[in-house]
Design a protein that fits this description.
The complex is a heterotrimer of chains A (420), B (89) and C (986). Chain A is an alpha/beta fold and 420 residues long. Chain A has eleven helices and 18 strands. Chain A has two domains: 205 residues, 3-Layer(bba) Sandwich (FAD/NAD(P)-binding domain), CATH 3.50.50; 144 residues, D-Amino Acid Oxidase, Chain A, domain 2, CATH 3.30.9.10. The chains are: A alpha/beta (420), B alpha+beta (89), C alpha+beta (986).
């Protein structure tokens, strides 16, 4: 990055004093070249992070990221911004913990304030059986260096004094907290990676939809796009809920179904919630944004959908969960909702691997949890593409695990994606 | 979203639970390639963006399993049939 | 006072007292809080989000971006409430927001001085050094300046309801188009619901001087509503906003009690309507578009449509000297109405170089000054004092205290786009219009771009006719209503180009033209990037007044057309909606249903403590006076069972009645073990898998007769197993002749256990011989009667490890059975026990339960691999043979005992090799269930360990950092108590 492009307080002051005449685009809006070493399909967080780490860590810069719309327009732009590494299984937790570590240094790494705020997450406990299960997970988190705390009911009250401790249908008995978890400004993550990748020479090509693949000698040799053919030695997919739509052109099916996940925000309020929390007896999780809005999520709409819009039963279910915990919530108002397409997998865990077709690299099945994975996903996918083998952190995210039975099923609900 | 149950009439989707894809048939467990066939049956999906066949259970109604043809882009429902009729025919 | 001497739809005979920001004022019935504030010359009602600029009242509708107040106090406190939508009631109390120390002087207004540095995106470029300071210092500052209103702290005392309604035609909006559409369909006999957000239906008819069919607009609306209300198949919903269009379902909120200080007794505050119409007519009208120019946010600047409403409907004026800045004829009409009402109209400024002759003539007659081809270059004063007007003659300053603006009309098309349709820019109308609304919807009136009254009425009749015909009604041709009103001509005008001052595009989020410039220069040129980078359109008004201007300015700066620039996505809700309306009664204890066992009240009488098991409340333990804690109680209960007798309600288990000649075959296919060979009068324990090879559930199934079987499932899986079996029968094997029904609710079931169980049972059995050891051996099942003729099913089953029976009677006799058992067992000291003792005894026995059947375990993992038949197919068999599921390094089921018996093993502990560092690589397994065994005198656990039973005898490290535990344990068989099972056979 050229020195005059670095962001700093001094640059902001200088730009302000010169009426912002010297502002530069944060990233170059590139025109596709006929050939790249690597083309990454999907200009979301994962695609951008992959491009950045390919350039930064592996020194590969002849790379294009092609995006059918505007960058960050998929799930990166429509999530609830929570970052955490509070997983149970050894096949998952080290990956998410590495992601957490990358989040912790991301602002300095990218020279972009993505507003990582480590205000913690609390999973509320409502029964003894739930406490046992959470303790198992909390101990696993500690074994992985992620950190965890078991909170008593009184501890929870100290963190979240506004919850209903007295009249709840499912009384709050405690909580499992990951103090290092928190939130990040979702759009800024994409912009920050894009800016840094672009500065290293990566071409970011927007409004460029992949319509098919190019083949040569039994290998995938690039993509056909609405802006012409783009040849590439390696073609990497990071298109979340749309993965099946692209792989269907290659004639193979995936252990993935696409579902809608809705999210909601309230009108802006002065801050009273610090950190995120989840309801253990309903479908509800919540944090408060730096703009003051309460940010809610809940269960996915329970059927396959690409519609990017949800239905009323889930809206009611989520708000009922919210009111069960926050007794004054009924008097506040909900302002906006949105919906993303989640690539739900058959065991609820991601797929990141070489292949399954020569020349292709697959990064998919992030379920409803792809945002927090962004940095590690980029890191590991870059490694997988550059070295033609999985990084130790994503070695379990193989696509053939369904065939071999090495499943990574955190919730234990089996091959029914809408239950994960 | 209303599902026109052949037994109960049009009812809101919240009366139903969705199980998943209804295009596959349970493979023959005695066949030589049963392992591979069950893998495909249990795990692999077309996951189409468009018309899609799914199993829905009218748990808060007649308890019938229904085969529903629904468009995943528009949520328009094209056809609803009783599983028993569908499987037998 | 700014109340006009005459006119308005207010009731001057009913004065109302109210308070704003601590000061007392008076208004009239029929006022909104906004009109009453205007009447009292209150200019500043709020402070803006970022720069804390003083803000006044901008509109008279739900699109209001500025006048957000905190309404009411205490538990009914309601932040961010639009003053324009609050009907005045006596004693109303409201407060300004986002201002410290007061609305008049706000210290944070200093942000304006920093504005050149804190434009769009500044925070992405700063606050990064030093690293630790974001959370410590910067973020708290950013957060404390966030938000506008303050959330309450007390539980909401009001109630909410949800209603589902079906109709032929739903009409959204009761203005000229909506009313004529509804009348047309209703007169044809259609079932019609018409909803309007106002308490007074009529829309703009109540604010404008129009004539429909010889009636003044407001009179027409009144008569139309009277006719509609008189029709039996019509429902008129006022104070009702349709806020979201989902698949087949329209969501609306009715504000039943918001216009009152406190909702009426036995009435909700708000109601959610889920409306399922066959056809819908969107007649939501159009709103004035603001114009972007420096100072366009000054209190006193108001949209022309709003001013018209305040003058005509509320008889108030926001100023004594009013100028108009507009690019359409409708605003000229407002100017004439203002003049007629006695208000000084200082000037009409219109950027159009020419104007219709009749308007020019009327202005002349009224002596109004007009400036054509001119624009307002700046508005001055912290509340409006003057405007600078740039015209062909140069720039001049005109003293005014109010300015009405209108850059055109924006149709309210949001609802028509809730299925992700996008509007198109119509250059002729100067508006975004929708050509492909959701299925079944037609758009009428101003929402469809028909801005003249006659066109509104015509489109109402047309859409109403079509909707009724589509629903199978025939519509008689009605005479055309003669209409007259203002001219609808005009052109869209967005933005005055100038370098001066703050020109606001979004008054809610304080986005200025300068911010759009920054975004464009930095590459945020997609309309979605612009929104996200600047927060344009993300405020409480949903961008109703800002999106189009932002879009037009972006188009201009990037050299594209408005059509090519495109819009962001429109999503529910149309206006913000109380969470309460969507929550309804599902709050507090009523969040979800509570299921009570048949013996619940009996247990309650005995002083039982209850616990949640899914939706069930089950007796957890039965404390006795003098017992110091639950553990002492539970240990007493267990000792009683093991030494004599105890009883527990197990009715919560799922119970399924299966009948038909093929049940045996069916069970063979769903259980891993064989059932078809089970003789009548016997029960068998079975394990069923999912098709992926993992354990789904376990339980016993008994054969009551040749063709009748009864299955039990675990409590938590009752529903899942039932629907799974239905799936198997209907989808997989419809050829099997099996019928099934859930009988979970129909039968009460009590487990009776302990060495004296039989003696007690025989005392209540009508035929004691039927439960003799020989007549009813272990795993026997019999149908008999108890307590003198009450039919009963008795199963010889034991979960506790003692001689045990489960006695089932029709649910209504559950309590009677419990009482009879207590009476019969009194001499043996029969002890009711709860789920804690149940769990303690099953862990002592090494039986698996919920924590072991966690969906991640195979039948081999839980130590029951030998049960699985090799001779038949069953659900899950094929995939259970995958390498990953038969790997000998999988976690297998074992028992765990502390080496030092004082240590307490607990569920959730992880197991590591002795002396090994605590890393994930050394993680060997975990304890799934544990108990402080009364029988053994120390804690024991069961769990899963890499290598499983092969490790029996090994010592490992029990690692529990979360609770501070770290000690040595020994791996053993999970069957701690009576491993041979002799005690159940006695």
């Amino acid at each position: 990055m050229l020195p005059h492009m670095r962001y700093s307080v001094f640059k902001v002051l200088r730009d302000g004093l010169t009426s912002n005449r010297h502002l530069q685009p944060a990233w170059r809006d590139a025109v596709p070249k006929p050939h790249y070493d690597i083309v990454i399909v999907g200009g979301g967080g994962h695609g951008m992070a992959t491009a950045y780490y390919l350039a930064k860590v592996h020194g590969l810069t002849n790379i294009a990221v092609v995006e059918k719309g505007w960058i960050g327009g998929g799930n990166a732009g429509r999530n609830t911004t929570i970052i955490r590494s509070n997983y149970l299984l050894a096949a998952n937790e080290p990956f998410y913990e590495w992601s957490m570590k990358l989040w912790e240094g991301l602002e300095q790494e990218l020279n972009y304030n993505v507003m990582v705020s480590q205000s913690g997450i609390i999973n509320l406990i409502h029964s003894d059986a739930q406490r046992d299960a959470y303790v198992r997970r909390g101990n696993a988190m500690i074994l992985n260096g992620a950190g965890a705390k078991l909170l008593s009911r009184e501890d929870v009250r100290e963190h979240l004094p506004f919850l209903d401790f007295d009249n709840g249908r499912f009384p709050i008995k405690g909580g499992l907290q990951q103090p290092r978890a928190g939130t990040a400004r979702h759009d800024a993550v994409v912009w920050g990676y894009a800016r840094a990748a672009s500065a290293l020479g990566v071409d970011i090509i927007q409004n460029c939809e992949v319509v098919d693949f190019l083949f040569q000698d039994g290998r995938i040799a690039g993509v056909k796009t609405t802006r012409g053919d783009i040849k590439a030695d390696k073609t990497a997919l990071a298109v979340a809920g749309n993965t099946s739509r692209l792989t269907s052109k290659l004639g193979f099916r995936l252990p993935i179904e696409s579902y809608v996940l809705q999210a909601f925000i309230s009108e802006g309020l002065k801050p009273f919630i610090h950190g995120a929390f989840t309801f253990g007896a309903g479908h509800f999780y919540c944090s408060q944004s730096d703009k003051g809005e309460l940010v809610f999520g809940g269960d996915i709409d329970g059927y396959n959908s690409y519609a990017q819009r949800g239905n009323l039963p889930v809206v009611e279910d989520v708000f009922e969960g919210g009111a069960a915990l926050i007794p004054f919530l009924p008097r506040l108002r909900y302002l906006r909702q949105w919906a993303g397409i989640c690539d739900m997998s058959m065991d609820g865990s991601p797929i990141m691997c070489v292949g399954p077709v020569p020349g292709l690299y697959l990064n998919a099945a992030w379920n409803y949890g792809g945002f927090k994975a962004t940095p590690a996903s980029g890191w590991c996918f870059a490694h997988t593409i550059a070295r033609d083998e999985a990084h130790p952190l994503n070695k379990n995210f193989r696509i053939d695990r369904f065939r071999t039975g090495h499943l990574i099923d955190e919730k234990g609900v089996g091959a029914q994606p809408n239950l994960h | 979203m209303l599902i026109d149950c052949p037994y109960c009439g049009a009812r809101d989707s919240h009366e139903f639970t969705y199980r998943g894809d209804a295009t596959g048939t349970r493979p023959d467990p005695a066949a030589e390639n049963a392992g591979e066939a069950f893998h495909d049956y249990v795990y692999l999906r077309d996951n189409p963006a468009g018309d899609h066949l799914g199993w829905w259970y009218h748990g808060a109604g007649c308890r019938q399993w229904l085969k529903v043809s629904r468009n995943t882009l528009t949520h328009a429902i094209n056809a609803v049939r009783l599983a028993r009729d569908e499987v037998k025919s | 006072m700014s109340r006009l001497a005459h006119g308005g739809l207010i009731d001057r005979s009913r004065p109302l007292a109210f308070k704003f920001a601590g000061k007392s004022y008076a208004g009239y019935a029929g006022d909104t809080l906004a009109s009453a504030l205007i009447a009292n010359d209150v200019k500043i009602v709020g402070r803006s989000f970022k720069y804390h600029r003083p803000r006044g009242i901008m509109t008279a509708g739900s699109e209001e971006p500025n006048a957000l107040v905190a309404l009411r106090s205490g538990a009914r406190h309601e932040p961010n409430t639009r003053a324009t939508m609050v009907e005045l009631f006596d004693g109303l109390e409201a407060f300004g927001q986002n201002a410290f120390p007061s609305l008049g002087f706000d210290a944070m207004a200093v942000n304006q001085l920093l504005s050149r540095f804190i434009g769009a995106g500044f925070y992405y470029k700063t606050f990064m050094w030093p690293k630790a300071f974001w959370e410590l210092l910067y973020e708290p500052v950013v957060r404390n300046s966030a938000g506008i209103g303050i959330a309450g702290a007390e539980p909401d005392p009001d109630h909410y309801e949800k209603v589902t309604a079906y109709c032929d035609v739903l009409v959204i909006g009761a203005g000229a188009a909506g009313l004529t559409a509804a009348l047309t369909a209703a007169r044809a006999g259609a079932r019609v619901i018409i909803a309007d957000e106002d308490h007074l239906p009529g829309g703009r008819l109540n604010s404008e001087n129009v004539v429909i069919g010889g009636h003044d607009g407001a009179q027409y609306a009144k008569a139309a509503i009277a006719e509609l209300s008189s029709l039996p198949k019509v429902r008129v919903l006022t104070r009702t906003t349709v806020f979201g269009i989902y698949d087949d379902t329209y969501a609306a909120v009715e504000r039943v009690g918001d216009h009152l200080a406190v909702p009426e007794a036995f009435k909700p505050r708000q109601k959610l309507w889920r409306i399922i119409p066959k056809r819908t007519i969107l007649a939501a009208g159009a709103i004035s578009q603001p114009i972007v120019f420096p100072g366009n946010d000054r209190p006193g600047v108001m949209l022309a449509q709003g001013l018209q409403t305040y003058i005509n409907r509320y008889a108030v004026t926001p100023g004594q000297h009013v100028a108009f800045f507009a690019s359409n004829d409708a605003a000229w009409t407002v100017a004439f109405e203002a003049a007629k009402a006695g208000i000084d109209v200082a000037a009409i400024i219109d950027p159009r170089p020419e104007i219709r002759a009749d308007l020019a003539a009327e202005a002349k007659v009224r002596g109004l000054r007009t400036l054509l081809g001119a624009v307002v270059e700046q508005a001055h004063g912290s509340t409006l004092k003057a405007i600078s007007v740039r015209g062909s003659q140069g720039t001049e300053r005109i003293a005014v205290d109010a300015l009405a603006v209108s850059g055109g009309h924006s149709p309210n098309i949001q609802l028509a786009c809730h299925h992700r349709g996008r509007p198109d820019w119509n250059e002729v109308k100067g508006a975004l219009l929708v050509s492909e609304p959701p299925p079944g919807m037609a758009i009428a009136g101003a929402a469809a771009g028909h801005f003249a009254i006659s066109a509104c009425v015509a489109s109402g009749v047309e859409t109403g006719t079509k909707a009724a015909v589509d629903c199978g009604y025939s519509v008689a041709k009605a005479p055309v209503l003669a209409c007259s009103g203002h001219s609808a001509d005009g052109s869209a005008f967005f933005h005055v180009k100038t370098q001066k001052g703050f020109a606001f595009v979004d008054l809610q989020t304080d986005v200025t033209v300068k911010d759009i410039n920054i975004a464009v220069r930095e590459g945020f040129r997609s309309v979605e990037h612009l929104k996200r980078y600047t927060a344009l359109g993300m405020g409480a008004d949903q961008g109703k007044l800002s999106n189009l201007n932002g879009l037009a300015i972006l188009a201009e700066k990037t050299g594209r057309t408005i059509q090519d620039t495109g819009t962001t996505i429109y999503r529910p809700p149309y206006t913000s909606v109380s969470f309460g309306a969507l929550v309804g009664h599902h709050r507090g204890k009523d969040f979800r249903p509570t299921r009570l066992t048949p013996t619940h009240f009996w247990a309650k009488k005995l002083g039982a403590k209850f616990t949640e098991t899914g939706a069930w409340l089950r007796a957890q333990y039965f404390p006795k006076p003098g017992e110091i804690d639950w553990l002492q109680t539970v240990q007493r209960e267990v000792k009683a069972v093991r030494s004599s007798a105890g009883m527990i309600d197990v009715s919560t288990f799922g119970k399924i009645d299966l009948q038909g000649p093929d049940v045996g075959q069916f069970l063979d296919r769903v259980y891993v073990n064989t059932f078809s060979t089970l003789p009548v009068g016997k029960a068998r324990y079975g394990v069923m898998l999912r098709e992926d090879g993992m354990v789904m559930d376990d339980g016993t199934t008994a054969r009551l007769s040749d063709a009748q079987w009864v299955m039990t499932t675990t409590t938590v899986n009752a529903v899942k197993v039932f629907s799974h079996l239905e799936y198997c029968l209907q989808v997989l094997w419809p050829d099997l002749d099996v019928r099934m029904a859930s009988i979970s609710e129909q039968w009460a079931q009590i487990a009776l256990a302990g060495p004296n169980a039989r003696k007690i049972l025989q005392k209540i059995a009508d035929e004691p011989g039927r439960v003799e050891n020989a007549a009813l051996p272990v795993m026997g099942a019999t149908q008999t009667s108890v307590m003198g003729g009450i039919k009963a099913r008795i199963f010889r089953l034991s979960f506790s490890g003692e001689l045990g029976y489960e006695v089932a009677v029709p649910a209504r006799y559950g309590e009677k059975l419990a009482e009879a058992l207590v009476a019969a067992g009194e001499q043996f000291g029969i002890t009711p026990y709860g789920t804690e003792a149940l769990a303690m005894m099953r862990i002592e026995k090494g039986h698996v339960s919920g924590p072991e059947l966690n969906g991640q375990t195979t039948v081999t993992d839980i130590g029951l691999g030998k049960m699985a038949s090799k001779k038949k197919d069953y659900i899950g068999r094929t995939l259970a043979e995958r390498p990953g599921l038969v790997d000998e390094n999988r976690l297998g089921f074992v028992g765990i005992m502390p080496v030092n018996k004082k240590n307490v093993v607990r569920a959730g502990i992880h197991l590591l090799p002795l002396g090994a560092p605590a890393t994930v690589e050394n993680d060997l397994g975990y304890i799934s269930s544990a108990t402080q065994s009364a029988t053994l005198g120390h804690a024991v656990g069961v769990g899963f360990l890499k290598g499983g039973p092969k490790r029996i005898g090994e010592r490992l490290r029990a690692f529990d950092p979360l609770r501070g535990g770290d000690f040595e344990v020994e791996i053993c068989s999970p069957h701690f108590y009576d491993p041979q099972g002799d005690r159940v056979r006695v």
